[in-house]
């Protein structure tokens, strides 16, 4: 029986969807996404916030430039 694959994807507003990583275990995918969220919280210019489980957004603000990036888990 084939295992499901979990993909971590991101999209900067106005750009194409990018695949960051893929895993065969859900807990590893969630661990990667949570680690990514924690790294963004440590920086000064990024403001991450959870939208729902497995999906968060970061807002980058610097010198009048505001960009939103979305990160999520997809299962196939």
Explain what this protein looks like in three dimensions.
With 76 residues, the protein is of the alpha+beta class. It has one helix and five strands. Strands 2-1-5-4-3 form a five-stranded antiparallel β-sheet, with helices on one face. β4 (55-62) and β5 form a beta hairpin. The protein starts with 5 loop residues before the first strand and ends with a strand.
Keywords:
76 residues; alpha+beta; elongated
Could you give a quick summary of the protein structure above?
By secondary structure, the protein is of the alpha+beta class.
Question: How is this fold's topology laid out?
Answer:
Layout: E1 6-12, E2 18-23, H1 26-42, E3 46-52, E4 55-62, E5 65-75
Antiparallel strand pairs: 1-2, 1-5, 3-4, 4-5
Which of globular, elongated, flat, extended, rod-shaped describes the shape?
Answer: elongated
This entry's quaternary arrangement is: single chain
Largest sheet: 5 strands, antiparallel
What's the overall average pLDDT, rounded? 93
Q: What is the strand content?
A: over 45%
Q: Give the tally of β-strands.
A: 5
- Estimate the helix proportion, in percent: 10-25%
């Amino acid at each position: 029986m084939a295992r499901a694959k979990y993909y971590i994807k991101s999209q900067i507003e106005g750009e194409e969807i990018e695949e960051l990583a893929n895993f065969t275990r859900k807990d590893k995918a969630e661990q990667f996404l949570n680690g990514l969220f924690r790294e963004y919280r440590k920086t000064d210019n990024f403001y991450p916030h959870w939208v729902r489980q497995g999906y968060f957004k970061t807002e980058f603000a610097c010198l009048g430039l505001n960009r939103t990036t979305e990160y999520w888990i997809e299962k196939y």
